[in-house]
Amino acid sequence: MGGLKFVTWIGSLCQTQAKSRSMKRQIGVTEKMLRLGVVLIVALCGVAIALSFSTQLLERQPLVLTEESKHLSQLRQLTFEGTNAEAYWSPDGKWLVFQSTRPPYKADQIFIMRADGSGVRVVSTGKGRCTCAYFTPDGKGVIFATTHLAGPEPPQVPKLDIPRYVWGIFPSYELYLRRLDTMELIRLTDNEGYDAEATICWKTGRIVFTSYRNGDLDLYSMKLDGSDLKRLTKTIGYEGGAFYSPDGKRIVFRAYLPKTPDEIDEYKRLLQLGVISPPTMELFVMDADGRNMKQITKLGGINFCPAWFPDGKRIIFSSNHHDPKNFDLFVINADGSGLKRITYHPAPDLFPHFSPDGKWLVWCSGRNAEQPRQLNVFRATWRD
């Protein structure tokens, strides 16, 4: 997932112990036997979460497990270097935009590639830190957040003695539009607070994003040129990672809404320090104008990166509610019913996104990692 003024995300979220599986059916196997001690720094729409885990890749271990093959087939790895996150489709289903930390860059920059992984090129400035890119409705541009105006060095999260992951709310993140034909870079936000985690409704052209304005982190919407700003949420707490439904009528997002006085005090104190550190996140759905907000998960743990199915009736997301040591993909109906697990791999699975026709699922995973701090982009055929 957006437009950010924001953040480095640092913190230990999970420690995943390798699990040995004996499989009769092997799909997309790796020929190597290696043990990796991995620390993954994943930018979650502006937030860098550190996933600490140890993964054992056994000889001929399947890339797709038997339990996963009900819904996933023809798995293809699209990236093979760096740490990659948040890969999202273009409206015509021919391209992907994603963020990656890879040489010579010190932090995440924005790249595009064809749907088969070819034609990779950087479209951000190469300076500062970037996050959360998304294609425009015409497919000829991408929006993303970048700190490059504040200087060439990427901002860092302050060191705090907090036993959870931490995200930095960097005021240097701003939302930009990059025209892919002319490479013109157009600034969309000019705010002294955090503007981040932006996606676009391809039907209406409106952007939804998280912003630190009016003393809290809330969801806002605006037109593609940055005009007609509207505040959508006013509840104290963090709301972010929002996506419009395909028809543009609803929005799904993740949130941490502190309830007790102690939770509220901690949230506000950390916000003043320029960070947030939610102990849990749940998923919510609301109308596009911010009305009729409803919590659709009450799972505990961290539930995030939700994305709509093309039918607009279901949502796919990543969660560690079942196992605090790992993230897997789950599906749930938009009304909160029908929870179903999709992935079972011992490596984390994050940032799912469907192609517009619903035939392909792209996501980022630590499966088949060959070096420390590595997530790669994968694509699979989806079967209902």
Structure write-up:
There is one protein chain. By secondary structure, the chain is mainly beta. The protein has a single domain, classed as Neuraminidase (6 Propeller), CATH 2.120.10.30. It contains 1 helix and 32 strands. It has one helix at 261-272, and strands at residues 9-10, 12-16, 27-29, 34-44, 47-57, 62-64, 72-77, 83-89, 95-101, 109-114, 121-122, 130-135, 141-146, 166-168, 174-179, 185-187, 195-200, 207-213, 216-222, 230-231, 238-244, 250-256, 275-276, 282-287, 294-295, 303-308, 314-319, 328-333, 340-341, 349-354, 360-365, 376-382. The strands form 9 sheets. A 4-stranded antiparallel beta sheet has the order 7-32-31-30, with no helix packed on it. The chain has a 4-stranded antiparallel beta sheet with strand order 8-9-10-11, with no helix packed on it. A hairpin with a 5-residue loop joins strand 15 (174-179) and strand 16. It is globular, with a radius of gyration of 19 Å.
Task: Give a short summary of the structure.
With 384 residues, this protein is mainly β. It has one domain (9-18, 32-58, 65-382): 6 Propeller (Neuraminidase).
